[in-house]
Amino acid sequence: MRVIEITAPGGPEVLQPAERPVPEPGPGQVRIGVAWAGVNRPDALQRAGSYNPPPGASDLPGLEAAGVISALGSGVAGWAVGDRVCALLPGGGYAEQVVTPAAHCLPVPAGMGLREAACLPETFFTVWSNVFQRGGLGAGERFLVHGGSSGIGTTAIQLAHVMGARVFATAGTAEKCAACEALGAERAINYRDEDFVDVLREEGGADLILDMVGGDYLPRNVRALADDGRLVQIAFLQGPKVELNFAQVMMRRLTITGSTLRPQSDLAKARIAEALRERVWPLLDSGRVAPVMDRAFDLEDAAQAHARMESSAHIGKIVLQVAGG
Ligand SMILES: NC(=O)c1ccc[n+]([C@@H]2O[C@H](COP(=O)([O-])OP(=O)(O)OC[C@H]3O[C@@H](n4cnc5c(N)ncnc54)[C@H](OP(=O)(O)O)[C@@H]3O)[C@@H](O)[C@H]2O)c1
Questions:
Q1: Which of 234, 236, 265, 294 to mutate to test ligand 1, by most ligand atoms within 8 A of the CB atom?
Q2: Quick one: how far is CA 163 from the chain centroid?
Q3: What is the pLDDT along the chain (325 residues), one digit of tens a residue?
Q4: Residue nearest to atom 42 of ligand 1 (CA)
Q5: Is the pTM of this model over 0.85?
Q6: How far is the CA of 125 from the centre of ligand 1 (A)?
Q7: Does residue 292 sit in helix, strand or coil?
Q8: Angle formed by the axes of helices 41-48 and 302-311, to 10°?
Q9: Per the count of CB atoms within 10 A, which of 177, 186, 254, 255 is most buried?
Q10: Contact 146/211 with Cβ under 8 angstroms?
Q11: How far does the centroid of ligand 1 lie from the alpha carbon of residue 40, in Å?
Q12: What domains, with CATH codes, occur in the chain?
């Protein structure tokens, strides 16, 4: 089968087409004929050599895909060959066929194409588990998400808005800020012109912040939180090491937490999938929430897709066309 390999740690040019044997699904797994594969920032980290696949996972990049089930491993119930699914993957999505636990598959939402469905798993699993399960966001709370125009950000804005939170987002251009507000943010803050700490403090502080930036955002996030506020860290685009006055955490009863999705157990991911199917898939079926599409590239042009992602010019999700449909 055609795949895209990471030939050595490095820039986008190390992504090269290659041929590999078709993988066989193990017990509890399905094989999916990939139509579209989603591109995520962690793929670029893996390509650069700083986010290695967990033990047993494919060395090929690609954490999500949509397509048609082409084979079932032993013991799989609830799915059949020919079903159209989107799935969270342990890796291996930049390929014509991929295997993943059956419990990490979800149906393609009503009326949605496979291209859009390929954009769902990575950001919806991440946002649901961090914003709602770990962060406990409730209706009426003030929620701040950094990188509001990213794949993660566009998902977080929509879900938080539809769940009744007051949403604030940061982004780096006026166009990105407008996109955040169109998705449901009541206020998008262009961080090049305004200090998000001032804006949030004027509103009474954030009850929950979802952050992927880190660096000097860490002490600033602490200042932007309301008493009893929670900070959930999902990445450190500006680095994980900072000086922080923890007296603030104690005096204002703050919670600082975080998680990464990929190394979690298959069971933990299956539980997130169950919750998504019950709580979020009806919102996708009805069209109240939808993935924000940036641009599609052919599988062979994965290097261009990564270059676009790392330029940060995109708004929403970038996808790779593997077979179409
Ligand atoms: N913990 C987890 O389980 C998990 C899962 C998936 C993704 N993630 C992380 O979540 C983040 C977003 O992922 P994504 O796939 O949605 O990525 P993405 O679409 O590429 O978004 C990243 C965005 O962050 C903003 N940004 C702010 N500071 C930045 C900096 N110093 N360097 C680069 N970009 C910066 C950029 O927009 P501006 O123009 O506004 O700056 C950019 O669009 C990534 O860091 C990713 O690693 C974590």
A1: 234
A2: 18
A3: 999 999 999 999 999 999 999 999 999 999 999 999 999 999 999 999 999 998 889 999 999 999 999 999 999 999 999 999 999 999 999 999 999 999 999 999 999 999 999 999 999 999 999 999 999 999 999 999 999 999 999 999 999 999 999 999 999 999 999 999 999 999 999 999 999 999 999 999 999 999 999 999 999 999 999 999 999 999 999 999 999 999 999 999 999 999 999 999 999 999 999 999 999 999 999 999 999 999 999 999 999 999 999 999 999 999 999 996 6
A4: 312
A5: yes
A6: 15
A7: coil
A8: 110
A9: 177
A10: yes
A11: 9
A12: 2-120+262-321 (3.90.180.10), 124-258 (3.40.50.720)
Q: State the closest ligand 1 atom to the C-alpha of 40, by its place in the atom list counted from 1.
A: 15
Ligand 1 atom at minimal distance to the Cα of residue 41: 15
Instruction: Name the E strands within 10-150.
Output: 15-19, 29-39, 64-72, 84-88, 97-101, 105-107, 142-145
C-alpha of residue 236 to centroid of ligand 1, in Å:
9
Query: Mapping DSSP to helix (H, G, I), strand (E, B) and coil, where does residue 267 land?
Result: helix
Using most ligand atoms within 8 A of CB, pick from 150, 176, 261, 265 the residue to mutate for ligand 1. 150
Interhelix angle 174-182/151-162, rounded to 10 degrees, is 30
